[in-house]
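quick one if you have a minute, typing this from the bus. theres a chain ive been looking at and ive put its sequence and its fold in token form underneath. please have a look and point out which stretches look like helix strand or loop to you. anything you notice is useful, everything is just below.

***
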Amino acid sequence: MCITGSLADFSLPQVFCLLETGHQSGLLTLHPEGTDHTSSNQAYYIWVYRGQLVGMANLLDHQGLVSLIAQQRWLKDICPSSLFAKLNRLCPKHQPLGSYLKKQGILTNQQLKWLFQSQVLQPLCDAFQLKAGHFRFDHNVPLPTIEMTGLSISATLATLMGLRNLPSWDALANHLPDPDMGLASLGTDQSEFPLNDLEWQVWTYTDCMMSLKSIAQYLQLPLKTVQQIAFRLIAIGLAEEMSLAVEDDYTPAIESQSSGLHQDSYREVVSYSFLQHLLGFLVPKAS
């Protein structure tokens, strides 16, 4: 199965949500606008296993993780020029390279976490800033174990973390929820997500019949900050936009606890009804 689309129509957080909801496995390719879709240059390759991100690279030469290891000089007894060939030969084809090296006592847990941060989490911030481009998801593409640390992160949690560290929201500006809309809870257990202080505060106003504009005023936060927080709550499936039938003069009994908290930002508009509509298409057929 192959799914293609434009990032102008479906944002990366939406695509991630679909992949996790459908428990998909395969290769997600992102091509920024203006690049040749048949070329590997300037592309992002993200390997997914049952809705979990397990690896990421900018090239399909399968040498990205080995290059990171070589840069850190953690395998000093192996010549850098022959490192890829030797590891490719030694590592079992069914086992992630990182897990193999840890089992051999060559890498530590902390080193694996650093590799995953550098290989997957940091590049995701760049991917979230793509203003235009195309995506392609190829189902059941064999996972390159030599590009895998053995660690993984759910697509929605990766979205939350990526949006929190987003330097610029220009690419997602048109996806932010309307200031005059409210937030409705989708009944998802919020304890599954490590919400920070501001996210938690905005979350408490779901189903309160208050617009984002009023929430921002009540919490004494910039409206853009509240919109970005609301966006990420929507992106990870905790809430959806809610139309308000009347002007929200409502003042809740909850006292504001925003004083002394750091300002934050982030989130993208994911329509829950849209996800439900496409879910049947994304769930793979039994093989």
Q: What stands out?
A: The first helix runs from residue 12 to 21.
